[in-house]
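Lab notebook, bench 4. The sequencing result for the construct came back, and we need a structural model before the next group meeting so we can plan mutations. Quick request posted to the team channel:

Model the 3D structure of this chain.
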Amino acid sequence: MPLIELDRITFSYDDTPAINGLSLSVGEGDFLGIVGPNGSGKSTLLKLIDGLLAPDQGSSLISGRPADQYGRRELARKLAIVPQSYTLDFDFTARQVVEMGRYCRKGEPGRAVVNELLERMGVEALAGRPFNELSGGEKQMFVLAQALAQQPEVLLLDEPASHLDVSHQLALFDMLVELNSEGLTVVCVLHDLNLALLYFKRMAMLSEGGLFVEGAPEEVLSPEMIASVYGVQAYMHKHAGRTFLTFSPRRRPARKLRVHLICGGGTGASLMRRLLDLGYRVSAGVVNAMDTDEVTGRELGLPLAAEAPFTTITDSAHRENMALARAADVIVLTAMPVGAGNFKNVVAVRQAAESGKQVLALSGVEERDFTQGAAAELSGAPGLRYVASDDEVVEGLEEIWESSSLLPAE
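Done. Here's the predicted structure in C-alpha cell form:
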C-alpha cells in the first residue's frame, strides 16, 4: 500500500484552478523530486498532501486512510512539512523552534532527539540564539530540524535549498539521502534541475496543475520534456559519471529551413546549438563516434550520420550522410580538417551542390587539406559559396531564409 495516494484531485483558489485531476502515489522509502514552472501547482500539491488544504474533488489517502480523517497530531506523526518560508511573531530561540516539533510526540522523551538533530545538522552552536536574528539559510536548517523532530514517516520539503549557498545545498541533500537510506520517505519540491538530476531516484514534473510526466530523472528532465513544459532549450551532458543540464535562451519560432552540417573534430558543435536556438532544423554527418560533434549532436537529439572512431567513412555511412543532405535545404561545410579518413565528406558536399543544393563552406579548405585533393574536389561546384566565419554562416542562412519560398504566409 502506498504511503500517499492521490487520485484525480482538483483544487482551486476561489475561481482559479491550481490542481487539475492530478494522480500520484508515493511508496515507502521513495525519494521523489517534484519540479515544474512557477504556478504549476507544486507548493499547493504539498499542502494538499499534508492536509493544510482539502481537495475540491478526488481523494487523498495517507496509509490507506483519507487525510481528513486524521487529527493534526496524529497526521504530524505521519508527515512533516518544511515550507518555503517560516516566520515567528515571538522571540523564541532556535532550539525552542526545533522543540516545537515534539508537540505531536507529547509524553515521549524529546531532549535527546533534539540534541542529536542539532549535532547531526551542525547547528548546535546557534541553538541558543534568537531565531529571528538568524540568516535565511540558518533559519531553514532549524525549520528542517523541527520537521525531523516530529520523527515522521514522510518528509515534505518545499524549496528547502532556496536560501542556502552551494556548499550548504549539497550538505543538505547529502543528509536527505542519508535519512532516506535509514527509511525516511522524502518528497521534495525544487527548482534546481541539476540538483534534481544529482540526487533524486524518481521525478514528477507538473504543468498547469497536472502531472505532465513521472519516472527516472534522466527521462523526466530530458531536453524534450523541458522544452515542452518550460519553453527553453536544455542540453544534457554526461561527464565523470554525472549527468547535468545547461540551458539556452528561449528559441525563436521553429523555421522550416533545414540545414545539414558536414563537420567533424568539434568544428560543428557550436553551430549546432546556435542554429537550433535560431529555429533551424539541423542534421549532421559524417561524424566519428565519441568526437565532440557526435557527442553534442546526440545530446541535442539531431539526426546524425556517424562512423566508428578512427575509421575511414564507409559507403553505408556516406549513403546515410547523403540521405540527410538530400532532405536539407542548405548544406554547410564547417572548418573541418580533411584527410583520407573523411574525404567522402567533401565528396558529399560536391554531390549535394551538383544536385542543386545551396552550400555554404568555410573558406580555407586548401590549408585544411591533407589529401592534396579536397580543394580540387570542391572547385567549381555549382551553388557553393565561401564564407569566412560561423557568423557569416548564420548571416548567409538568414539571407536564404528571408528570400526562401519556405517563409510562412503572412
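The chain has a mean pLDDT of 89.
Will bring this to the meeting.
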